[in-house]
Design goal:
Number of strands: 19
Number of helices: 24
Structural class: alpha/beta
Distance between the termini: 61 Å
Largest sheet: 11 strands, mixed
Strand order of the largest sheet: 5-4-6-7-1-8-15-14-9-10-12
Helix content: 25-40%
């Protein structure tokens, strides 16, 4: 059993991202991939003056050999108040930390996790990061008077994991990894091992890379590693280096058995991972074919897969004339056997779309594979006109797809590679999630409630706007969307709820909300957790047909009524469900010994329904016959005991009143 745990599949249950090309969600990412969008742009002026620094001569001191790259928008914007970060601390906070917090929170929301419930949990955080641009710009300037008590914690790389754990109250392992361009996949490997070793029950893998000054670009220019036309041309004969890019990504991991138990939405599963070092190669920064081969073999062994079962490899593929052939040599040594030109191994790299995101590159490729699994399509590779002449394409059953390729086999497996410039390499093998047959609930009622909340009025309006955009394109049902918002999001102090029958009606209501000025209303004391009380009333508010629609539309309500009917059978000579379905003239709702058991059954069923939707009482209170339902919900009485008490009580009241009907209701309630 212990050995099996070391191979347990790991579920990816949430993800969020920022990549060049205005990629802020999976839908946009897939659009970029499917359409073959090239997201490389000119270096923004708010980074540094690229025109002034540009040269065509890589040997010229203090200059850069490219004018473009992959860049994110709005990296200076951050809601510090949401994360309870003061303005003074925020001034000293590396934008990579800020972005990591934001994207991690979005990934947890995407996973349907309430962050308040993660406090004091063994959730682990593994953060990949290597860039110290902000530290160089603000902490290590030589101006010692600028150093304050936030300088180190705001800019140290270790804080990229530690700050997430601190702000979310997480007590599992929290580690920052710097292995250069393999950082995020090494972090993924560590997270998988943490889960398999039971060091944590949930794991956050995150990585960030921002280009804030020209120093590292100058270094890579002198190394002659950068593409002169600012494009990664992976495995192409025109490949002449890579282009630097920004990015941030987070994935949420859980043991597959736990994810299935908790009903999580599994995006993909990780079957195996491996990390190796090049060791003594041709140079400190030179790759090693033999080490890469060992890496791939070990990952396959951990995934319990044969090489022939892998359909696609998201390669490191930086587009260098020498590095790409070395990577292909290792892939060939492991995957060539048993394949044919008619059934080739497909190989690509997302770097052709938006460049090399460095520490984030592995997660960029991993999320690309998740989207390909979901859409059953391997997206096209860009900038592949002439195959690299140093690769023996004629004798290799491999193909770099230049058009989108169907990927609809039942079991889909793919590998993702990430190589570090100092020789630490990682590989992760992903598969499509197991098919889960979900029981379709009965048709719901006509109206759906969308509860939305935020930490401020402004944030609430921003959330509403995002829901408007989401509703316009989402293929999810309105019921699924509302259920996710109600049960799988953290609920904050500023709230509103929107009730509608259709998506169009809901969009209209949301749009109206954004156009009206509201006075800020903090619904709850920020320091007090809101409590829920269920109140069970006495007799008197019944009507003919009550409960009928819920019985027909809500499975939980129906099951609860059936259970009460069965419990009543020992004490009454009438059938609960038959009485609920009777109309005017035949109904016995005016008989005390009938209506009181019916009301208790309905109150219990309503409580069961609310609890199934995540609305669980902290306290209950009952009036008159409602005390019986309250005692049952509180766990004081069993259902059989509740049935006995209310049925005998109502019969006794009927005898005491001397009437079978409720003409003298005051005397019996």
């Amino acid at each position: 059993a212990e050995r099996e745990k070391s191979f347990e599949p790991i579920a990816i249950i949430g993800m969020a991202m920022r990549f060049p090309g205005d990629i802020t969600n999976g839908k946009r990412y897939w659009e970029v991939l499917e359409t073959g969008f090239d997201a490389i742009t000119d270096i923004p002026n708010n980074r540094f003056n690229a025109k002034e620094l540009y040269t065509e001569n890589p040997d010229e001191s203090g200059k850069i050999t490219l004018k473009q790259g992959g860049f994110l928008n709005d990296i200076d914007k951050f809601d510090g108040s949401f994360f309870d970060i003061s303005y003074t601390e925020l001034e000293n906070l590396d934008p990579q930390q800020r972005l990591g917090l934001e994207v991690t929170y979005e990934a947890l929301e995407n996973a349907g996790l309430d962050v308040k419930k993660l406090v004091d949990s063994d959730t682990s955080v593994f953060a990949g990061i290597t860039n110290i641009d902000y530290q160089s710009k603000s902490f290590r300037t030589g101006d010692f008077t600028s150093i304050n008590h936030y300088s180190y914690s705001g800019q140290a790389l270790c804080a990229n994991s530690g700050r997430i754990s601190y702000l979310l109250g997480l007590q599992g392992p929290s580690v920052t990894i710097d292995t250069a361009c393999s950082s995020s996949l090494v972090a993924t490997d560590m997270a998988v091992k943490s889960l398999r070793n039971n060091d944590s029950s949930l794991s956050i893998v995150t990585a960030c890379n921002l280009i804030l000054d020209p120093e590292l670009t100058i270094y890579f220019s002198h190394l002659n590693a950068l593409s002169k036309n600012s494009r990664c041309k992976s495995f192409s004969n025109e490949g002449n280096g890579f282009v630097r890019s920004e990015g941030c990504a987070t994935i949420i991991l859980k043991r597959l058995s736990d994810a299935q138990r908790d009903g999580d939405n599994v995006l993909a599963i990780i079957k195996g991972t491996a990390v190796y070092q090049d060791g003594k190669s041709n140079g400190f920064t030179a790759p090693s074919v033999s080490a890469q081969k060992k890496l791939l073999i070990t990952a396959l062994k951990n995934a319990r897969l044969n090489p022939s079962q892998i359909d696609y490899i998201e390669a490191h593929g930086t587009g260098t004339k020498i590095g790409d052939p070395i990577e292909m040599d290792a892939i060939s040594a492991v995957f060539k056997s048993g394949r044919s030109k008619e059934n080739p191994l497909l190989i690509g790299s997302v770097k052709t779309n938006f460049g090399h995101t460095e520490a984030v590159a592995g997660l960029a490729g991993l999320i690309k594979v998740i989207l390909a699994l979901e859409n059953k399509k391997i997206p096209k590779n860009l900038h592949f006109e002439t195959p690299n002449e140093l690769i023996d394409w004629q004798n290799l059953p491999f193909k770099v797809p230049t058009t989108n390729t169907n990927w609809d086999n039942a079991e889909k497996n793919a590998g993702v590679s990430g190589f570090g410039v100092t020789g630490t390499n990682a590989h992760v093998i992903l598969s499509n999630p197991p098919l889960v047959e979900r029981e379709k609930p009965a048709l719901r009622n006509d109206f759906y409630a969308l509860p939305l909340s935020a930490k401020s009025e402004e944030s609430l309006k921003g959330l509403v706007n995002r829901y408007i955009d989401f509703l316009k394109v989402s293929t999810n049902s309105l019921e699924e969307i509302c259920a996710m918002a109600a049960l799988k999001r953290t609920h904050w102090e500023y709230r509103n709820v929107f009730v509608a029958k259709t998506k169009a009606e809901l969009i209209e209501q949301l749009s109206d909300f954004t156009q009206v000025e509201y006075e800020p209303k903090n619904v709850f004391d920020e320091d007090a957790e809101p409590k829920i009380v269920f109140v069970f009333p006495g007799q008197g508010a019944q009507w003919i047909g009550m409960g009928k629609q819920l019985f027909e539309s809500e499975l939980i309500f129906k099951e609860s009524i059936i259970a009460s009917r069965d419990a009543f059978k020992k004490w009454v000579d009438w059938d609960l469900i038959e009485e609920l379905n009777k109309g005017e003239g035949s109904s016995r709702f005016d008989e005390i010994d009938v209506i009181q058991p019916i009301l208790v059954a309905i109150e219990i069923a309503l409580a069961d329904l609310w609890k199934s939707k995540g609305i669980v009482p902290d306290a209950v209170v009952g009036h008159s016959m409602g005390e019986v339902a309250a005692a049952y919900v509180a766990g004081i009485l069993t259902l059989d005991e509740s049935a006995q008490i209310i049925c005998l009580r109502s019969k006794l009241m009927k005898r005491q009143s001397g009437k079978g009907e409720m003409g003298d209701r005051k005397s019996v309630v």
